[in-house]
Each structure stands twice: as structure tokens, then as C-alpha cells.
Write a structure and sequence with these properties.
Helix content: 25-40%
Strand order of the largest sheet: 1-10-7-4-2-3
Radius of gyration: 17 Å
Order of helices and strands: HEHEHHEHEEEHEEHHEE
Structural class: alpha/beta
Strand content: 15-25%
């Protein structure tokens, strides 16, 4: 086993214990394929599923697998008009399983997320019966300050480039604390525990995934 993989395993073992103390179930997957299989095992056939914007879920093939499953799929790319979006998110709010990643996580077991519209963090906080997070171990940070810095200076600038947003970070590669109309850093959410034990589950993946 190479040193990086061994480090990821050791760190994940610590994280699993610390997440557990915060009411969050944590699991470790050595690679993307294992992570996808683990995520799908949580899903009850015939249940309703949806997801937030996530390169991690795309990279491991989970979104494609969900679309081809026997679940009722609430696909965020389908609604186009404001009314359709409103109706769509009202259904997501009561779905059985909501999938997402996280912008950063701390060694103490905290989650840090930045959101533009707020729909992703809203579902994390309240609504869907189960929230399944998939996160590469590259998103691990030593403490809350460094996790917030990672979300602002790594995840957000990469996402603005992906979304072709007109913000300073697309040009300089780091947060400029902007107030631009196209800013995606409108909501900062720190999740320190799950109020409903086991509602939030996180699959830690021993790979570099997402932003």
C-alpha cells in the first residue's frame, strides 16, 4: 500500500469515530467504485432520490447509477422555469434520499459548505429523510479555519470557473470576498452534528475527488 492510501485509511479511522460522536454515520471506501456501491446500498428500491450539484458524484458514476435505478428520480437538470424550479424543490424537500458532497471537512468531524442558491445546504440541514455525502479524502482539513479557507479558496473558485461565472476568483484563483451578482458564496454553513442521529451519512473515499 502506498503512503497516501495508508494515510487516508488512518485519517478515515479517526474521522469515523469523531463523526459518530456527532451523530453522523461514516464509512470508508478505498476507491470510487466501492464508494458508489456503498452509497447505492443505502437506497431502498422505489424510494425517491435527488442530489445537489457535485463533481464528486459525477466522477464516481453515482448520478448515472441513480438515474438507471428503480427509484423515483428527482433530476435537478429537468426544471427550467421559476415555477418548475419551485415545484421541483418542494419535492426534494421531502425526498427519501438526498446525495451531495461537501466542500471541506475537519479532522474533528465538522462539515463546511458554501452555496449559491442555498438549495444544497438547505437539504443538508432539513427536509430529506436521509442525506448521503460522498467526499474524497483530499477535502480533509486540520481545523475549522482551514476548512473554511479551503471552501472559499479552492472549491468556490473552481466551481465559478466550471459555471462560467463573472467573479474575481475565476481570474485570480482565490476568494476576493466579492459582492458580484454572480457570486456563488452566498451561504456559509458549518455542520457540527446531526440533530437526528444517523440522518446524515458520509462515505469517505481514499481518492482525490471533486473540488
Amino acid at each position: 500500500m502506498n503512503p497516501k492510501k495508508k494515510y487516508y485509511e488512518n485519517a478515515a479511522e479517526t474521522l469515523i469515530d469523531r463523526f459518530s460522536k456527532r451523530g453522523i454515520e461514516a464509512y470508508y471506501a478505498e476507491n470510487s467504485e466501492e464508494a458508489k456501491k456503498t452509497a447505492l446500498r443505502f437506497v431502498t428500491p422505489g424510494s425517491s432520490v435527488s442530489w445537489g450539484g457535485s463533481m464528486t458524484l459525477e466522477e464516481i458514476g453515482l448520478i448515472s447509477a441513480l438515474k438507471n435505478s428503480d427509484c423515483t428520480v428527482l433530476d435537478r437538470t429537468v426544471p427550467k422555469t421559476p415555477q418548475e424550479m419551485k415545484e421541483f424543490y418542494s419535492k426534494v424537500a421531502v425526498c427519501d434520499y438526498y446525495f451531495m458532497s461537501t466542500n471541506a471537512m475537519t479532522l474533528q468531524g465538522e462539515l463546511v459548505n458554501i452555496d449559491g442558491n442555498g438549495n444544497r445546504v438547505a437539504s443538508l440541514i432539513f427536509g430529506p429523510e436521509n442525506v448521503i455525502i460522498v467526499a474524497g479524502m483530499n477535502k480533509l482539513c486540520p481545523d475549522l479555519d482551514s476548512a473554511i479557507a479551503r471552501a472559499r479558496n479552492t472549491a468556490a473558485p473552481m466551481n465559478t470557473v466550471r459555471l462560467n461565472r463573472d467573479t474575481p476568483c475565476t481570474q485570480i484563483g482565490r476568494c476576493a470576498d466579492c459582492m458580484r451578482p454572480e457570486c456563488i458564496c452566498n451561504q456559509f454553513v458549518v455542520t457540527r452534528r446531526s440533530g437526528i442521529p444517523g440522518r446524515i451519512k458520509i462515505i469517505l473515499v481514499g481518492e482525490t475527488l471533486g473540488y
